[in-house]
């Protein structure tokens, strides 16, 4: 996408606005599949939680991707987007047995990550194939909030509980057709990932009827020019060799599965926001935009870095700015960053805004969530309308008869 395209989108659809480049999503999908071209059976299941707009889901379906879901709502979105139930895997955490049974009734594949639900589900539905999520006790990921495979994580069944797991499987006579792990997001060290994979291979030997092994995802993408990223080509070469060797040892060809989310959509996303005020204090120059962590919470929640550029003044001289939002508390996108000189009314572009950005947006401060636009084959296509005041109060119940207006303003006595 060109800078002029983004400026035109901001003018046409208003700001703030999220923009997604379909060409980048497609190229990332092909890059990952090519990295594992040596595997006879490969299944990529797009992690819907990263960006769940139904048009994006339809794009993924058109590429031949499956879908990784974490809620019954995501399952239903996937079905609405045209995914076959057999191409959807449901990997919840801490949900009720009833929700898992609801997903199972829809025909999707089930992934269970705790012994309690495993025993309950296996006792009631021994003939329903189940994947089991293992916690390999490997610390990986760029932030403690997104590192999910360590010993203190709430995710997965501990490798130290394998004997208990096997006892449940034997007593219920349930059918285990898959083994799964996910160590965390923003993984850089391929050797750590391969080490965790060995734990998964060793665990897989306990089950005779496996159809697939799911290695999760968490591949790091670059957040700025020159930034480091996961070398998926090197990982593909090394893991393909080891996976194929394991399949021979196991006695049949299994499917190698991944559930990429951020890797596919992060770099495809742009968030555009207009500068309302340039404010100089005794120590800082603030650029205050018409947005906040209600629209893009990752910097405040994770300390995430989003490269910010002034697309209205690409040739200006660089100055130091702290980019902040309009939420009525600390609301900082970036502190003391070099950005081309900013004037009020300029449009700032936040890069890597495709994953876990709009999906985590809220109506905090009673603000509206922004529009979403897909840039596809040289055209801007609206895929979500900007919210209005009617959307804000849509599900509120205004019980007017409970409280009458005060006859006069209260005064101190």
UniProtKB/TrEMBL annotation:
Its EC number is 4.1.1.20. Pyridoxal 5'-phosphate binds at residues 218, 356. The keyword Isomerase does not apply. Keywords: Amino-acid biosynthesis, Decarboxylase, Lyase, Lysine biosynthesis, Pyridoxal phosphate. Pfam families: Orn_Arg_deC_N (PF02784), Orn_DAP_Arg_deC (PF00278). Pathway: Amino-acid biosynthesis; L-lysine biosynthesis via DAP pathway; L-lysine from DL-2,6-diaminopimelate: step 1/1. Substrate binds at residues 298, 302, 329, 356. Its cofactor is pyridoxal 5'-phosphate. Residues 23-266 form the Orn/DAP/Arg decarboxylase 2 N-terminal domain. The keyword Amino-acid biosynthesis applies. InterPro entries: Ala_racemase/Decarboxylase_C, DAP_deCOOHase_LysA, De-COase2_C, De-COase2_N, De-COase2_pyr-phos_BS, Orn/DAP/Arg_de-COase, PLP-binding_barrel. It catalyses: meso-2,6-diaminopimelate + H(+) = L-lysine + CO2. One of its GO terms (biological process) is lysine biosynthetic process via diaminopimelate. Residues 18-354 form the Orn/DAP/Arg decarboxylase 2 C-terminal domain. It comes from the Bacteria. CDD domains: PLPDE_III_DapDC (cd06828). Belongs to the Orn/Lys/Arg decarboxylase class-II family. LysA subfamily. Homodimer. Specifically catalyzes the decarboxylation of meso-diaminopimelate (meso-DAP) to L-lysine. NCBIfam families: lysA. This is Diaminopimelate decarboxylase. It comes from Arenibacter certesii.
